[in-house]
User: What shape does this take?
Amino acid sequence: MDISAQTLRDRLSGALIAAAATPMTESGEVDADVVARYFASLVADGADALAVLAHTGRGPFLSPGTRAMVVERAVALGVPVIVGVAGGAGEAGRQARVAAELGAHGVLVFPPAGDGEDGGRVAVHEEVWQAARLPMIAFDLYTRPCPPDVMREVLRHPGVAALKTALLSDAMGCQRAIALTREAGRLAITGEDRMFGPSLLWGAQAALVGIAAATVEATAAVMTAYRGADLRAFEDASARLDRLAQATFTAPMEGYVQRMLWLAAAEGRIPETHAHDPYGPALPAGEREGVVEHRGHRSPAGARRDDRHPPA
Assistant: This one.
């Protein structure tokens, strides 16, 4: 394993990496100051690192200029920053190279579309590595699960520091991915918002989850309790987070980004004007109220809920 991958693996061990959303208006406009305040609130409330422009952050839909601004605002906070990269015809490599130039610490490599038995998933990791030499986190995503033999090959790449599993409801697949990752000496990262507590028990060593795009304290509490000796505390913290996950990570599944933005606005992390996901499905009228009822009642650290974004 390359020394840079070893360094990132060790630095992220035990970390909660918030898969941050990208706050935007209904028309898709992104404000740099809103992004900066939002990212800072996640770090203040317990995120050890940030993953930006990933699935939750709608990275594949954003322009190069917006992507660069988002990375810059995250890097300015001084925590490890992982940048989502995706696309064919060299696009993932170009995105990784820009991320490296802007000071990112690693990249989360989306599985390529149409990946089959042609080695496409392995090839895109090599492309990204040659373009940027940034350590990589491989991504086992529920929409494109990785076959075990391909996963073993990806995990042998010297630039791969970790693998994130986000299989949603495939418990056996999640357990297999964690086991293969640890056998390869890489960091096993859970992205299992609906199997968060169980995935830690199955051996996940860090977390990179969309449910930490808001409600960071509730997510961090599960990891803290897991590291402790109080089984009941872990059970209680896991149950609280799972109730929230049931309300946010549900059909239509792509609606989870909008639901997390609603929660971020309710917590005062972003203004209502920027709590929109124009790339997700329409959600039923009245759903927002039910989602917000599941959130915790603590305000983000360092600010009262009504002080962060006062009414215009």
Remarks:
- Residues 297-312 have pLDDT under 50 and may be disordered.
- The chain is about 45% helix and 10% strand.
